[in-house]
Amino acid sequence: MKAIHSIKSSLFILAIATLLQGMSPSWAEETAPADGPDEVIRNLQSILLQSMREGEELGFQGRYDLLAPVLNQSHNFKFIIRTILGTYWTEFNQDQQREISEIFNRLSIATYASQFKAYSGEQFEILENRPFPQNHIEVRTQLIKSDKNSVDLRYLLRQEDMGWRIVNIVAKGVSELAIKRTEYRSILQRDGYHALIEMLKEKIIEAEQI
Amino acid sequence: MVDVTTRGSSYHFFAHWTAFAYQNAAWVILAAILIALTSAIYTINNLGVHTDTTEMLSEELPFRINHERYKVEFPQYKDTMILALDTQTPEQTYTTAKRLTAALQKDGAHIYDAYFSSSDPFLERNGLLYKSIPELENITDRLAAAQPLVARIADDPTLYTFANVLTEAVNELRTGRTLDLEPVLDGVNTTLDARLAGTPRALSWQTLFTGEIQKDAYQELILVRPKLDFSQLFAAEAPIAAVREAAIAAGITDESPERLRITGSVALAFDELSSAMHGAQDAGILALVLVAIVLFLALRATGAVVAVLLSLILGLILTATFTAFAIGHLNLISIAFAVLYIGLGVDYAIHFLLRYQELNTNTKSILDTLYTAGGDVGSALMICAITTAIGFYAFMPTTYEGVAELGVISGTGMIISLIVTLTIAPAILRYLPTRKSTSAIKEDWLDNIIALPSKQHKTIYTLTTLAFLAAILALPHMRFDYNLLNLNNPHKESVLTFRELLADAEDSPWHAIALADDEHEAKQVVEQLTDLPEVDKVVTLFDLVPKEQETKHFLINEMALTLGPIALSTFSIGAGNYTVAQQRLALETLNHALNQFITEQPNHAAAVSIRAFSASLSQLLGQLNTTNNTNQLLDAVSYDLLGLLPEALGRLQIAFEAQPFTQQEIPETLNSHWLSSGGVFRIAIYPTENINDNNALRRFVRAIQLKAPHVTGPPVISFEAGEAVVDAFIHAFSLALIGVVFALLILLRNVTSTALVLIPILLAALFTSAATVWLGIPFNFANIIALPLLLGIGIDSSIHMVHRSRNTDNNHKNLLHTSTARAIFYSALTTVVGFGSLAFSPHQGTSSMGLLLAVGVLLTLICVLIILPALLHTIERRETSIPST
User: Do B656 and A133 touch (CB under 8 A)?
Assistant: First the structure.
């Protein structure tokens, strides 16, 4: 048992190392204490790969627990939900803000956990980064699938005290903030706060079950 | 009554004068020709024209002092043109305005500066900070809804991709996803319909993003400061032509959907001057023709008519020379004097020649006849000339230079006319003698008409009293039109455009300006004025700094993040690499998806838009099947739908860089419009109502003057100038009246005669004032001089009548059969046609002056030929009933 476990670990390390070889060589050196945007993305994408590889074994909750620390570190979910809700956020009281922030946080991690659960030779590649208005950075990456088709993945990051954090993901040209804004705000307008909370909770349940 | 004294010195003086001229005709004519030529040359070289109506008022008036201060502190607003650019979409208007402004800024020969505020880089970057928070939220919503579409299209901006993206979106909608597609679909639909209907109009992505309905036209205003060439009569001619050329070079032609119209103070002045001058020129010719006709009717002899016309022309040249010498320029009012002179200058000649003809039926020699005629008429003419001149010179002390200058020109013109008539007419008669006519019999028809009322004294008095009362009742309704725009030619582009801007524009070009020496004062003024109901808004430098910048900055940040990175590909908009077949297939697939949606969810909120879109799309596909130019049509549709997307996105990208700023960080180019280099703040005060209407103007100006007494700007200037002019007119009329009364008392030496001369004139003045109410011709800056002018003109007829009645042996019953009455009639007629021809000028100011003067002279004629004889008759009856001493 132990041997298999250690083989797995070494394979794991090997996998990581292989992955690292495909990435920017500068990562091999020890970088500055605060991670730059590229590093943040690399961290994220490496844990996603791990989640994919170990997905079956870990099960939903396992993946959730694996991903949560890195996701919380690399994303600013509070900022994201504020941006999505716009003025509605300022109209909520503190309890509501706390509640929706927490649920959104869980939903985001749950969504990742439900999507990154199986591995079949995918690779992430960081292409470049560019400036984005108001001192943000856009990191352009792609997810290369086993059939050599690639999916365009872009991250928008913002610099904060604890480093660079993701505030938007644009997958295949579609901005998450945009999609969610349209969706959440129309529910708020039509059916109100509780309907939104319910909808989000349902989505978490769905994610668990996929 | 025979006044022997008049037959004394002045009789012989004038008699000798005319005889001398007759005897030395050749020398006189030669001298006249020489003088005419030299004077003409001098005049052409030295006479200019001033166009600023309000500059004709005294510089010491408070409103002029306030305006001067404004011009010193903010010279960029002096002498400007406003270019109104209208196109179909905000993107096109913006791009074209920017292009045109850049081109104009390069034209150093004709333009000092061209300013299009929206294109200032500072505003391009920080423009979103000026929107309200709800507006910013709304834009973010719109961008969020459009984002999935826009990102894909920006990557491959072709019709093919656009169709595919829309198909996917519709399919998403079918699965129940919440997408806010209607605005995009409606926009695309309207654009398609426009292209299919033959009136293409590009889709404005900017309005899609801001969530407005796309209007038919969008306007931008460009402020231009041209280089005026004051050595030319039309100082603005070259810059205006340069602007039109630049417009054509920028692609704005008669065929393009863009339209450029030029207005603003420089263009308005240019059009005003050209209308006034052309009007005066045409009126002059018309007047000459009509006057010649009247002369022919009066004199029945070509020779006499020629004599009159020649003396008229000489008099005109000499008066113009005098103007060039004494004043140096004409103004928009005195331009009309040339035409007035044609009507007035013939009067003395008419009196002289009719008297001559009357006497010519005797068997005396021509010389003797001339001698008598000259003597008889000479002294009357002298009295006329002096009183008229005094009447006109009385304008000089007023604050209204326009009136003062006209007074000097007219007064001197009358004296010149007298001298020329008595010199030239006899000289020309030497060579073109009039035949002895039997005019007494031929004039019967006129005699009968004139004599008609003389029998009905009671009726005359009754009618006069009634008219008098009616006129008194009308007087309180007299009004003054302060609107300087109403003087101009209403059909000119500059006038029409300006009126439109006054009615519609957010930035009405007629706004009041207050100046403040420091920030505290400026804020105080704003506070006091903002709440007034007549004031729509008050704008200062502080408004350039938006409120809640931190919050807005954050929202702009969110907006940028939500939209995400959009990189416009370098492909040009259009077909890209796709064939016609591929594109058509994409469109058909889209149509299919639309129809499926309608079948599945006929009651969905978006169903209406989708149905409409499907109908248009089907029509397009139909046209693609039937047309020969599929490529062209597809390219056109591509451009319509996608052509403005790069512009809209580009502007957004720049706007996302907005940074909060303080007043100190505003760049000089913007700052200088609100804060002068001397530290003076400019405060712009906009009216609630359309102040093209005089009552609204008065309300606005009075309201703000209570709080800010030194306020200036076009509305205030118009109003104050109007008040000053009315004041000046009252002065002028009073001085003229006093001067005339004195002159008459001195020259006639008889109080009764003086009264008799004045009564009909004063009645005529009263009736003319009432006529402004009855005919709906309000007083304005141009025609207000009608009343003082009428005083000077009308006095002649009255004097002639009274003089003749005193100096002839006939009793007054035959007075109306004399040459004097006929002369009064014909000279008044020439004056009427002279002034009346001005009424046809396209320049409204000149035209109303002509009309009012014509009416006034007609009324004077009625008073002198009908009322005065009745008065004379009554007085004579009284005198004969008193035993004479």
Answer: yes
Quick: pLDDT tens for A89-109: 988 999 999 999 999 999 999
Interchain proximity B144–A186, CB inside 8 Å = no
Band (pLDDT 50/70/90 cuts) for residue A8 is low
Is the C-alpha dihedral spanning A168, A169, A175, A178 positive or negative? negative
The yes-or-no verdict on residue A22 having pLDDT over 50 is no
Separation of alpha carbons B484 and B495, rounded Å = 11
Q: What's the confidence (pLDDT) of residue B433?
A: 65
Global confidence as pTM: 0.82
Identify the segments of chain B with pLDDT beneath 50. 1-6, 438-441, 812, 884-885
Amino acid B68: pLDDT: 86
Domain ranges of chain A: 2-209
CA-CA-CA-CA torsion for A28, A29, A31, A35, nearest 10 degrees? 0
ipTM: 0.82
> Which residue, B845, B152, B862, B879, is CA-closest to B564?
B152
* Lookup result for tokens 């807005």: B552
Partner-chain residue, chosen from A130, A134, A183, that has the shortest CB–CB distance to B557: A134
Residue-wise pLDDT tens digits, B17-50: 888 888 888 888 888 889 999 998 988 888 888 7
Q: How far is CA B885 from CA B211, B875, B879, in A?
A: 100, 16, 11
Please provide the CATH number assigned to the domain covering A2-209. 3.10.450.710
- ∠ CA B605-B609-B611, rounded to 5°: 105
Pick from B824, B866, B860: nearest CA to B350? B824
Q: Is A170 on the interface with B (CB under 8 A)?
A: yes
Beta bridge partners of B515: B682
Position A166 scores a pLDDT of 93
Shortest CB distance from A178 goes to which of B178, B562, B653?
B562
CB-CB contact of B446 with B354 (8 Å): no
pLDDT, tens digit (0-9, with 9 covering 90-100), for B786-797: 888 888 788 888
Task: Note whether B250 and B99 are within 8 A (CB).
Answer: yes
Distance of alpha carbon B93 from alpha carbon B13, whole angstroms:
76
The C-alpha of B152 sits at a distance from chain A's nearest C-alpha, in angstroms, of 6
Q: Do B565 and A130 touch (CB under 8 A)?
A: yes
pLDDT of residue B7: 60
**CA–CA distance from B844 to each of B275, B279, B290, B511 (Å)?**
9, 10, 21, 24
The verdict on a CB contact (< 8 Å) between B558 and A83 is: yes
Of B164, B148, B156, give the one whose Cα is nearest residue B587: B164
- Cα separation values, B25 from B11, B353, B454, B525, Å: 21, 17, 42, 74
The answer to whether B153 touches B642, Cβ cutoff 8 Å, is: yes
Question: For strand B48-50 and strand A150-160, is the pairing parallel, antiparallel, or unpaired?
Answer: unpaired
When mean pLDDT is compared across A59-63, A70-74, B223-227, B746-750, the lowest value belongs to B746-750
Contact A179/B148, CB-based, under 8 Å? yes
Q: Which residues pair with B681 in a beta bridge?
A: B516, B675
Q: What pLDDT score was predicted for residue A9?
A: 55
- Whose CA is closest to B381, among B653, B15, B31, B674? B15
Tokens representing B588? 């058909």
Contact residues, chain B, for A177 at CB < 8 Å: 144, 558, 561-562, 564
- Residue B693 neighbours by CB under 8 Å, 6+ apart: none
pLDDT of residue B85: 92
CA distance B408 to B421: 20
Task: Specify the pLDDT at position B505.
Answer: 65
* Mutate: best of B132, B136, B147, partner A, most A CBs <10 A: B147
Which residue from A173, A177, A183 is facing B151, i.e. has the nearest CB?
A173
- Quick check: B565 and A183 CB within 8 A? no
Asked if B450 and B47 count as a contact pair (C-beta separation under 8 A), the reply is: no
